[in-house]
Amino acid sequence: MNKNNKKIPSIVIPRLSRYYRVLYEYVQDSWISSKQLSGNTGFSAAQIRRDLTYFGQFGIPGRGYKVDDLKKSIKNILGLDNKWNVALIGVGNLGRALLGYRGFIEQGFEIVAAFDVDKSKVGRRINKVQVYDISEIPHVIKENGISIAILTVPENVAQLVAEKAAAAGVKAVLNFASGHLKLPETVKQMHIDITIEIERLSFLISRDLK
Amino acid sequence: MNKNNKKIPSIVIPRLSRYYRVLYEYVQDSWISSKQLSGNTGFSAAQIRRDLTYFGQFGIPGRGYKVDDLKKSIKNILGLDNKWNVALIGVGNLGRALLGYRGFIEQGFEIVAAFDVDKSKVGRRINKVQVYDISEIPHVIKENGISIAILTVPENVAQLVAEKAAAAGVKAVLNFASGHLKLPETVKQMHIDITIEIERLSFLISRDLK
DNA sequence: CAATGTGAAGAAATTCACAGCA
DNA sequence: TGCTGTGAATTTCTTCACATTG
């Protein structure tokens, strides 16, 4: 719900992130129009204006949007004023890559703990992040006020560790394993499934062959 | 277009991938109903049946779908009967993680070449994949019949290397940098943007606080 | 006069609900 | 009887088009 009690289509949110990223890098001018944002994102100008009106009125007719103000507003809408403590569960190749990913900290997401089952990793620090045994999820999550867990574990254990993390108080899970986690409704989930995306491409290019 | 010349909503395709994955691991029975698929994926049974009818009639009333047959049909629809040669451009942390990712080869995607600008990487083999200099994109892509490029390069060079890859004949690009690549319509694109997904979670959990 | 914000229209996607089949 | 496949209804999302505003 929002200013008019109108439900916000969930697809609007990732678009806001895109607008935000464009604004973040926009240096040409201190004003930007929905048309210019359209050119930079590929979304239609009407859609951009509509998306923004779910949250308020940010523009000046005849002028456009003030870049700094719109940036701040979207930042606030997306909850990026908060600083979020994040746990990374599963320190394999992908997990390690994420530990080194700069994009998180820039936007207020800090990985404050990592977990793995592998004894040779537990107890070490990787990229300044302490690696704990999976069994320590409950207390480490509580003690560090961790609200987001990133899962980079094999698919067959994803459900189990997600449950543990949820029980420990995590509010949201970003899952790199495919598959639908059965968690309480209150725990939000998003998925990144590399295989799905590459299969979409496969579908598109093999259609052309047929 | 499909059997009835009805346009296939593009959102159907990632769902087919999910169904496929469930079928791939389904061992309970040689039959599966849309209701059971629903339980395993979280999509509604009606939606699953509708999705499948875009491509044909695969089920038996009163019985459900034969697991093996449906699996084969979806495999064919997704173009996974083909073997796709893939290039990985950008051998940083994430790129290296993807070079070790098992999920690709299982589904017929083989990374046959990698590219980077870093002289200390060029000429080496990482996970059995030869690393070339970016300047070699044109001939390596042509000579290896590469049709998909995975981009794990910094955002500011993504456009440039995508253009090179497209010019060399790549049909599809999977881009891990955020931002809309300007490429010919014939070149398909998909994006994986980790920041967008985590910001969606941030939005959802910060709403609850308000 | 240029660009926003928004009703209204239109398009797309999802769900309902049930006839018909094995 | 149980479940598919699908018209029709519904809901969700996008675009149109323009009155309004600085």
Approximately what portion of the residues of chain A adopt beta-strand conformation?
Answer: 15-25%
Instruction: Strand order, main sheet of chain A: write it out.
Output: 6-7-5-4-8-9-10
Distance between the termini of chain A: 45 Å
Helix-and-strand structural type of chain A: alpha/beta
Biggest interface and residues each: A-B, 63 and 63 residues
The overall pLDDT average of chain A reads: 94
User: Total helix count of chain A?
Assistant: 9
Give Rg of chain A in angstroms: 20 Å
Proportion of helical residues of chain A? 40-55%
What is the general shape of chain A?
globular
- Biggest beta-sheet profile of chain A: 7 strands, mixed
As residue ranges, the low-confidence spans of chain A are none
In terms of quaternary structure, the protein is homodimer
Count of extended strands of chain A: 10
Order of helices and strands of chain A: HEHHEEHEHHEEEHEHEEH
